[in-house]
Amino acid sequence: MTRPPMEPQPDIADPSRKGPVPPMRNPADPPRPTPPDSPVPDPDDPTGNPDSGPERAPEQTPFPDHEPDR
To answer: What is the pLDDT of residue 14?
Structure first.
């Protein structure tokens, strides 16, 4: 037994329409400020790179008193 087709719902967007849905915006709202342009650091420029941080401690063996099997 088949169901009859559903009636179109006026509040649901038409799926046959292509493209993104534009964001809802109140025309009375003031325009949004654009973010300031931030300079993109050059990866090859060593002066723009942040400090690497403190030096790492030398690696230690997890079991210094353990001798490897021979």
So the answer is: 62
